[in-house]
Structure formats: structure tokens, C-alpha cells
Amino acid sequence: MRNVTALTRRELISIFCSPLAYVVLTLFTVFSGFFFFFTTIAGLKASMSGTFGILSFVSLFAIPLITMRLLCDEYRTGTIESLMTAPVTDAEVVASKFLGALAFYLAMLAPTLIYVAILHRYGDLDLGPVLSGYAGLALAGSMFIALGLFCSSLSQNQIVAGSTAVIALLLIWVMGEVGQYVGGDFGPLLTYAGTESHLAAFAGGRIPLRDAFYFVSMAAFFLFLAVRVVESRRWRSGGMPGATATLWNRLTRWAILLGIVSLLMGLAAHMTFSWGAYPQVVVVGPVAFGALLVLGGILLNLRWIAGILRQRRFLVGLNVWTGVALSVIALVVANAIMVATPQTDACFLDMTRERIHTLSEKSVNILKGLDREVSITVLYGNGSVKTGYGDKGVDVTQRVKDLLRLYQSHGVKTQWVDIYADKLKAQQVALALKVPLEADTLVVSAGDQRAQIPFINLFEIEYAYGAMPTLAGFQGEEKITSAIVSLIERKPTTVCFLTGHGELAPEGEASKALAEFTGDLRRDNMKVTKLNLSQTGQVPEDCGLLVIAGPASPFPPVEVRHLEEYLQGGGKLLLAVKPRAAGGSIAGLEGLLAQYNVRLCDDEVVIEVGRDLRSGAQAGGVSFYTTFQAGHAITHDMGALNCYVQAASPVLTLVPEAAAQIPGGPPTLRSDWLVTPLLQTSPQGWGETNITDNPVTFDEKKDLRGPVTMAVAVSRKPHSAIPNAPATAPTSATGARLVILGATSILDDAALKANEANRTFALNCVNWLTERVTHLGIAPQRAQHRELAVSPALFRAIFLLTVLAMPLAAGFLGVWVWWARRR
Amino acid sequence: MIHVDQLTRRYGSAVAVDGISFDVERGEVVGFLGPNGAGKTTTMRMLTGYLPATSGTASIAGKDIFKDSLEVRRQIGYLPESAPLYVDLRVEEYLSYRARIKGVPSRQVRARVEEVIARCDLTESRRKLIAALSKGTRQRVGLADALINDPPVLILDEPTIGLDPNQIRQVRELIRDLGSERTVLLSTHILPEVEMVCSRVLIIRRGRIAFQGRMDEIAHPDAGVRIVAEVRGPEAEVRVALATLPGAHSIQTWADGPFCRVELAVDAGNDVREELSRRAAMNGWPLRELRREQPSLEEIFVRLTTQEES
């Protein structure tokens, strides 16, 4: 250790006082400053991740410039002789050179702390990923230095040593890229061996055990090799013992080598041609000839061979080469064990402020309590997972991979199936999971149950006019964990679509069915059936949810009674209506609704006045976008989203005076039912009675004044709750639940396809009605829009500092050191 | 202190050192001589553990140079041929660095550096970069390095090369001083240096030991002693008169004007000078010069290193 300190001190003086070091430092500062300014500052990003990428790449060239002289200069100037004859071990010599170079490398990175300071001062920089980024650079740098040192030990020529190191580093760097093109079994191996794939996590704020281990093991391996090379000088002696070889001796010795080559050729021929007929002589000939040469050569040179075997250099050499071979095996095996042990994947430090690389405690607890195997299958196409609209969508492969890795580390099996590239496997998976093959979806399955979630449901996508859609938030964890919970906790829910009154069917023609909605229900592990009350006589007991979508003819009282019984027994009802003007009818149901304090004005049509939310143009009328009322579990996190509505009827909370006037309704208003509005127009909207007027105008006497409610949720009031408190969490007390929508258009295929929020809203309604866990309260990962606030003057100042002043300072420092040493 | 047994080193098919064996006792200063390429440097490199031997063994202070290399290196102060140094260090920096890696305790490093700087006359250059030093000064820095940890064994490969006459004198003094308590093996081409400094000499030729012996044994009977005389007298008569001197093996005479110059080869044990002067007086030949000449090391060196292998 004492020796290492002294040796390292010598290395430090040599490195820090060499002009070359300052040339390297200046170039490094030039490159990093240039890239930092023109990507990070010019892009107004308060993040170092881009700069880290550049720094690691520039290190590929900078580090060999430093390491190339370390050992080969000792050989070249002869100082190796005084070094090797001093009482220091070869490992100490190599270690000190490594430490010296590492110290310089870290000193070379030190000026980049100024960049960090700038970003911290003028933007909301998350320092966690900065730390992990530097940790990654230091680890990668260690490996680069060890490799450079090894190359330096091989050659007496600096240029050769340096270029060998650069080439080797570049090869290892691109190996990852090559691996991705190669594919198959070999591709991932190459990708793993490459440097680049191991660096990505660090800049993103993670310090993964596996990647750190990769760098440390590689560094240790190359240092070990360098020690062996330096050591070899102590045992490699030239020459062979015994008398000088005669020409005959030499010829017979070469014959042994020729024989070995010939033997190998024969064996290679045997392996190559083994599949078919081949002339025996192709194999037998070289093998026999080779064996003859080898045997003859050995017999004629017995004394020479015995001499070699007895030689010290042979024994030591055998020892050393065995050590090298074992170290290669150790490197491969250690890394293989690392990768083959799933637990190591979960070993990492999450340095981000928002902990975006960690599963929430809720998810972790749920995954810990799993009593059966859960697996997640990602169905994708054309090599990547995409989401969103537009021609290409947004590539979210990495996000999904990172998230699924977390689930995997908690025992969830994951598999990725490219449904176009690997059709056979895709077919098998689809059969096994009983899901349609749709790209960009993931299937969560446990036992024979599964839920298919389109990726679009996992992301909040921000649309800006005239710009590419961007990912605003990632709700993957919330959605996947919810799906797991629903799978393991419940049997499939049966959803009955009522028929017999002209309702929309679950499947069929677009104008007469809710095919999209039904598809969503099926994907969400639900069974969908039709129900005709005139045939069955009552609502079946296993009906978890009754859907009445757009009835067009009156309900006979006997059927209404069945519905009443169903609801009294804790039934769940999703009722969507069409206004009378659109051919709908709720005749017969008024009384039933009145019992739950709801009045449906199907003789009116809601008119909204306002702007089109996408184009910003003046819009309104009977079809429009309207905001969700965020005060309910269904709409809890949808406050910022808009629902598409066309031809809706007002759905009102019944007022006491009106209750008695409704036929079949209760004589007085019941106080134990809570009606919560889900959709409302702006105050300028109204309920129009005469839709045929042209233009439609608000009529004070007949029309309903806005804001007009178009959808409500009804549930029993929680006993302890404050009367008007919104029900944000599902209550344990079971009871009837109703969602009444003033328009079937909220659920129809056109709306679900056109507006993702409608789809989410529809599913949320179903989840709330069936009392499935809908909201775990896991915050979505928001894309970190950390921006810099930089004024033009400051912009110039930063340019001068990073692109000009810092490299100049590095250069001047070099000149000063040179001058100071000369004195 | 140094024990060498059948040490052999080959470079490819060339044999640099061919089974040499010798011993150096504690307190001896042994001169290691031989023409260029005879294997001096190779032998020294093997002894210091820098080069491995192809076969044979050697031990220093009882430790095998191959098996116990680290311990052996602790015992040796080695000045390699042409004294390779780190040119980007200052003299002081270099010496204290060497002191540390050679195991000088931290507290004594400064004192040791001061001592070797004084001993090797480096006071003026102590703050200079080694790159700026002359050949001779570098040589002295190398010597200072060899002495820095006060080792019991010194192996010096041409220590006075590149020095000016004053410095050579100083270094010789230094080595003579060191020789009193340490074991020194030094190689050189400067024969008078060996005669002045060494107590024993080893002459190596084509990788084999051609001669080894104490400096006072160098007057071997084979080597012979010469008597040189000049008398005023006729050459022929002088030759006849002196050829019959007892113990004289051969006689050579030259006429030099009225004088005659005589060279007699005699046994080392016989001093014939008195008898010679008596015979000259008897013949009435005045004696102008009479001296006894020991064979010089140079002569031995030349004779041993130029004769063909028998």
C-alpha cells in the first residue's frame, strides 16, 4: 500500500506535468463545452443526461491518449529496469498507474461541474441523476483506463499502444449496436458485452448493480491481464536449452506444427461434410498425414521436448497462461451469474427526485402478496412499442421495458412478442391467452384470466397544435397493478346488455351496437351477454352489471319491476339514453329513476356554446367537448380531460317538489342516495326543448338554464360521510350503483375511437359500478419538463464561459505548469 | 554474499551468459570486466531480477533471486547501465520517490535524500529537472538512487561513465568507502579504476569466466614479472652477460646509441636486480635505469580476452 502511494504520487507528477495531458484536457473541454452549449443550453434543458453521453464518447478517445504512455514509455526509456529492480510488485506498479490515470480522468471531468452549477442555478436541475451520471462515467472510465493500460503494456510504441486502445474501445462500444442488428441468440450476448447498453441507465438516474458490476469486472480483468504482461518479463527468457539446432532438427520441429495443422484440417473437414457423402480421403488423408508428422517429429525430438518441459519458463508460463484462461472464464461466469440471477436486476439505486425507477409501495405490497403466477405479455409490431396517434406514434419501448423490468424483479413473468416478425409464437400466445392479436397492447394474465390493456391507456399524451404529440405522463404502474389486482381478486364479471326495447347491441353493425365498448370490457376480463327480460323473467343472479343502452320503446311495468328488484338486491346499472328527438325513449323508467333521485329530461337536447377544444375555433351546438367533473371516483384524475358528447339529454338531480309528480316514483325524496354529476356544460349551455328551431336559441320560459348536467353517478351515501362529500373511494357497504348518461354517443364506437378520454371514462364507469379497484392512487410518471430560464445576455455569457473561456483556461493552465516546472 | 551457480542466459540461439559461477564475499569490491557483449550487463540484470535466467541459480544474502525476488531486490542497490531516470521529475522528487518505494521509513526519507545528495555531489542540481541534467550528473543521480536505502549489496553497471576526471575521482573514493562495509560488484571498461578500487577482479569473455582472482594475486607466475634495464655497453656483450641471470626466462635487447635496453622476463619470486647491477658493474657498464615491472591488469585483460579458445 505504501508502495502504491509512492508510485501513484510519481505517476501523478508525471501525468499532471506533461504537456500532453493539458492538450488532452483542452480538447476534452472544447468538445464537452461545445456539445453542452449547443444541445443542453440551446435546447433549454435542465438536464445533464445528453452531456454525459457526449462525455463518455469523448472519453473513448481522451483516455487512450493518457494511458498510452503509462507502461510503454517505461520500456522505451528504459526506466522499467529501475522500476522492476526496486522492491515493488508488478501488481503495485500496474495499480499505481491505473490510479494515476483515474485521478487525471476525474480531474478532466471536474470542469464539467461548472455545467452542473449553471444548470442548477438557472434551472430546476435534479442532482440525483447528475450523481449517478458521474458514477457511470467514473465506472466506464475505469474500464477504459484498464483497457488502455493493458494495450500500453503490450507495445513499446506509444502510437501503437494508443491506437490499439482506441480501436479496442470503439469495437467494444459498437459491439452493442452490432448485437442489435445481429439478433438471435448471439445478438444479446454482443449487446451485453458492449459498453453502450450499460451506460444508458446511469444518465437516466439509476445506478444498477449489474451495469456497475460489468464495468468493475471488465476493469479488473484488463488490469489482471496488464499485470500478467508486465510479469511475463520476469519469466520469459529467450532461447531453448541444449545444443544449437541442426537443419534436420529444425525441419522435424516444423513438421510437428505442420502435422497439427493437418490434423485440424482433417477434423474440420469431418465436421463440415458430416451431413452428406464425401470422399473418405478428404478426412482420412490429412488426419493420417498429420498424425504421422506429429508422431515422427516428437520421436525425433524427444530430448528437445523433454528439455522444454523441464524448463522453468515453461512451468511458470503454463502457470501464468492457466491463470489468464481462468480469469477469462471467471469474467464470463461472473457476468453470466449476474444476468441469470433475476434478483440482481432489482438491485439499483434510484437517484431521481421523483423515484421514477421504483415501484410504489402499493404495487410492491400487492406483488408480494401474490398467491399465483402473474405474467405480462407485450404484443408489439415492427420492432418497437408505440402509442398515440399520427403516422408513427411515439416510441415508448424503453419506458415500457423499464417498467416491466421492475415487475419482473418482483416475480412477474414478462415476455415480448413481435406479432409480425414472429407469427408462429404470436399465434401460440394468442391461443394460450385467448386474446386478439393487437399490436401495442399488453396482456396481464393469471391462471385462466387475463386483461388486455392498450398502451394508449398507459400514457397521457399531450397534443399541441401543429406539433408532434408528446408523452405527458406515464400511468403504466397504476394501470398494470390495477389489472393485476382485478385479476387475482375477482372472478370475471358478467355484463348483461338488455335487449327487447331497441337498445344498442353489444356487437354488430356500428350504428346499432357498442362494439368498441364491448371489446374494452372483454379485454378487461369481463363476460358480455345479452339479456331479454321478457324471456328470462328476471335479471340473472350472476349479472354483475346491467347495461341499458339507448332504449327506443317503452318498458312494460313487469320488466320495470324486475329491474327494481335487481337494483334493490344491490344491482348495478349503466343506463345511457338517446333524447326523444333522436328516436330514444325511456318511457316506463321515470319512476325507477325517481327512486334514486334522478330525473331524465329526454325531451330536451343539450346545447353547448363555446369553443372547439382542439382547433380553438368557435363551436358548439349539439355535438361538443365538455369537461369532466372531477369530484367523483370515476372522474378522479380526468379533470384536465374532455369528453365528446353528441345529442345528450339533461340528467338532473330530482328536486323534492318534483318527486311526487313522477308516476311510479316515491312520494318523497329519499335522502340516502347521493347523486354526483360527472359531465356538465359551461354556464352558457342550455337544455333545448325545440331542436327544430333554426337557429336554436335559448328560450327563457321553456328551456333549461345551464350549466346542464349530462351524466350522473348514484350510490348510497356512506353513513359517516358529510352529506355532500364526493365519494372518492369505493365504500365497503354494497348496494345499488347507477351511472346515467344522457347520451349513448358518449359510449359509441365513433366517440371511443375519436377520443381516448371517452374510452377511459366508459371503463372507469364500469369499474366503479362493479366496485373493482379502480384507483390505487399511484401517481403517474410525468415527463420531466425541466427547463432553463436563460436570458439572451446570460446565453451569451454561458457561451463565452463554456465554449471559449474554459478551454482557454485549460490551455493556460498547461502553459503555466510547463513554465513552473522548467524553473 | 553473492553466490552464482551455473547461471545461463540465452537470447534466441545466442548464448549471452554461459554457465558462469562465482562468489562475492561480504565487504569485497569486485570488478567485473570483459569486452563489450561479453555478458556483464546480462549477468547483472539477472542478479537484480530484471532478466530471468534460462538456467542456473544465484542467491544474494542467502535468498534465491528467482524464488525470492522481492526480498533480493530489497538487499540490492542497482545502478543500471546508462542510468535510466524519469526525466520529468526533479532530482529531489526522484530520490525521495525511490527512497519510498525501496522501503525507507517515511520519517527518514528526507535525511536519506540529504545524505545521498551530499555524497554524490548533487547539491547544485537538487531542484533541477532531470531532463535538464548532463550525462555525468544523471549518472550521479543514478548512483544516489542505488545508495538511497543503504543496501548491503551494490551492483553498479559502469558507474563512472560520462563523468569528468574530478567526478571520477570522487566516485572512486565513494566506492572505496562503501566497499569497507558493503559488498560491491561493479562493471567497467576503465582498468586503472579496477586496480584502484577493487580487491578482486572477474574477467568474463563470451559469457564465460576467463579469469578471477584477488588484485594481489594478479602477479601470477604465468603472468611473469619483467625487469627493465638500460646500460651503456655493446648490445651483444650485454645480452650474453645478462641472459644467464638466474630465473630469467627470456631476454630482449635493443641498441639505443651507446646504450643498450634490456627486458628480462623472470619468475615472480626472483628479484634479479641486485645480481644484474653487480654484473653491469663488473663489466664496467654504467647503469642508467633499472626497474621491476608488474604485469598491468590491462595486459592481463588484453591477453585473456584476445587469445583464441584452446
Any overview of this molecule?
The complex is a heterodimer of chains A (823) and B (310). With 823 residues, chain A is an alpha+beta fold. Chain A folds into 4 domains: 2-170 and 220-234 and 788-822, no CATH class; 242-310; 356-466, Glutaredoxin (3-Layer(aba) Sandwich); 492-769, Rossmann fold, CATH 3.40.50. Helices cover 51% and strands 15% of the residues of chain A. Chain A has 28 helices and 26 strands. In chain A, the strands form 8 sheets. A 7-stranded mixed beta sheet of chain A has the order 12-11-13-14-25-24-21. In chain A, strands 6-3-7-8 form a 4-stranded mixed beta sheet, with helices on both faces. Chain A has a 4-stranded antiparallel beta sheet with strand order 17-16-22-23, with no helix packed on it. Mean pLDDT of chain A is 82; it is low at 238-243 and 720-733. Chain B has 2 domains: 2-217, 3-Layer(aba) Sandwich (Rossmann fold); 225-294, Alpha-Beta Plaits (2-Layer Sandwich), CATH 3.30.70. In chain B, the strands form 3 sheets. Chain B has a 6-stranded mixed beta sheet with strand order 6-7-8-3-9-10, with helices on both faces. Chain B starts with a strand and ends with a helix. Chain B is of the alpha/beta class and 310 residues long.
Number of domains of chain B: 2
Characterize the overall form of chain A: elongated
- Reading side by side through the largest sheet of chain A, how are the strands ordered? 12-11-13-14-25-24-21
Alpha-beta content class of chain B: alpha/beta
Largest interface: A-B, 39 and 42 residues
Give the second-level CATH assignment, the architecture of the largest domain in chain A.
3-Layer(aba) Sandwich
**Fraction of residues in helix of chain B:** 25-40%
